Amino acid sequence: MAPPVAVSPLIKTARWSVLLLGVLYGKQRFDYLKPIAEEERRVEEAEKKLREEQERIYKQLSEANSDTILK
What we know:
Elements: H1 9-65
């Protein structure tokens, strides 16, 4: 196995700089998207409650309509 080649300090600095910029960008993007996701979750929860209520009403109506003397 050949000995490792010395990496230029410029390349090392560039790698670390890009890594740091990526972390900072990720944090900024997360902070931007977090409130949007919370709003979507809130809306989905409200829609879920409404959907469950409609299903409950539908079930009650179908049970009421299925009452016959054959039961």
